[in-house]
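Exercise: predict the structure of this protein bound to flavin-adenine dinucleotide.
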Amino acid sequence: MAAEFYRPERRATGDDDADEGVDGSSGVSAPCGDSHGPNGFDLHALSGNLCRCTGYRPIRDAAYALGRPHPEDPLVRRCASAAPAAATTSVAAEDGWFLRPATLAEALDRLAQDPETVVIAGATDLGVGRNIRHARPRSLLAIDHLPELQAITWADDAVEIGAAATLSEIERTVSGRVPLVAQLLPQFASRLIRNSATLGGNLGTASPIGDAAPALLALDAELDLVSADGRRTVPLKDFFTGYRQTVRTAGELIRAVRIPLPLQPHTAFHKIAKRRFDDISSVAVAYAVTLRDGHVDDVRIGLGGVAATPLRALAAEDALRGREWTPATVDEAASVLRAEGTPMDDLRASADYRAEMLAQSLHRFLAEREDREDRPEEPVKEETRP
Ligand SMILES: Cc1cc2nc3c(=O)[nH]c(=O)nc-3n(C[C@H](O)[C@H](O)[C@H](O)COP(=O)(O)OP(=O)(O)OC[C@H]3O[C@@H](n4cnc5c(N)ncnc54)[C@H](O)[C@@H]3O)c2cc1C
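Solution:
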C-alpha cells in the first residue's frame, strides 16, 4: 500500500523541553485539536516517553507524518475483532513456571499449593521490579484474564469493581457515576499504564503512595478477599497493617473492591506531584463530604504519602463533623489535618512540605466548593490532554 503522508501544521510552542510528556502535556497543541493526529495517530501511545534532546514537537510531528497502516495489517485486523476467549497458559522452565489460568478456581488451587507464588495482574508495578530491581519471581500466577475478577456490577447499595478490571475499563464504566473515581483516574499514570493497571494491583502493592487507596478510603470501600478456604470482606481502612504490609494472607487474592452507595455528594482528589502527569504522588488527599443546612453532616478524608500506609485523617474528620462549613472551621481543621500521619523527608518532598500540602488541600477543597456554589460534583469529562 502506498503510505499516505501528511504534512503536519507546525506550531511554535516556545517550550519544547518542558518537563512533561510527548502526549501533549508540554502544551503542544495537536493539529487536530485533540490527542489524535491527522493520520489517526493517538499521542497517548507515546505517553511516558521523556525526551531531553529534540523536544517533544519533532517526535509528535514524526508520528503524525507516518502513513496509516494497511487495512489488511494483522494488528489492524486483530484490533477490529473481539479478544479471544481466555485460555489457560502454562509455561514451565527449570527455574520456575508461569500460569495464566482461565478460572478463579484454578488460580486459587494453585495459590493454595504454592503460597510463594507471585500474583501478577497488569504487571505495571511488577514489571518495574523486574526492570529496575532485577526481581525474578520463581513462580508467577497471572490473574488478568479471570472473568470473576473483571466484572463491574451495580446494585442499589454498592458498585463492585473486579480487582483485575483495568483502570481504563473502570474509567469507561464507573467514572460517569462515581465523581471521585472520575477525578482520580485521569491523574493516575498515563493511558498506556491505565490500559493494563488494576485496582487489585494498586492495593496489592500496599504502597503508601498508591493513588487508589486515598480515594477508596474516602469512599469507605471494602475488599472482597478470596482463597481456596472461602471468602471474607475487609474494610479498606483495616487492610493496611504496616509499610507494604496488609492483612491478605499468601493464599488470598483480592477479588473485588466494593464502594457503598449512595455516595457522598461533595468529593475531590488532590494529587501533589512533581510532574502533572505520569508521576507518583508526593501527597494525595481525597475527600467525600455531605453538607446539610450549611453543616458538615459526614466526612471522610483519605491520605497517601504521609505515613507508612495510606490512612484516614480521623482527627481532621472529627474537627469537621457536625461543624458549620465556614472558612473558620476549615482553618481549624486544616491545622489538625497538617498534623495527621508521620510524613518523612525523601527525594520527592520534605516532611514539612507534605504536612503543609495537607493543610493547603483542605483550603483548596473549600475554595472549590465555593466555586461550585454548593452544587454536587459533576463527573469530569474524559481527559484528552491536548
Ligand atoms: C509509568 C508508571 C506510572 C505509574 N503511575 C502511577 C500513578 O500515577 N499512581 C499510582 O498509584 N501508581 C502508579 N504506577 C504504579 C502501578 O501502575 C499501579 O500500582 C498499578 O495499579 C498496579 O496494577 P497492576 O495490575 O499493574 O499490578 P501488578 O504489577 O500486576 O501487581 C502489583 C502487586 O499487586 C499484587 N496483586 C495484583 N493483583 C492482585 C490481586 N487481585 N490480589 C492480590 N494481589 C494482587 C501483585 O502480586 C504485586 O505484588 C505507575 C507505574 C508506572 C510503570
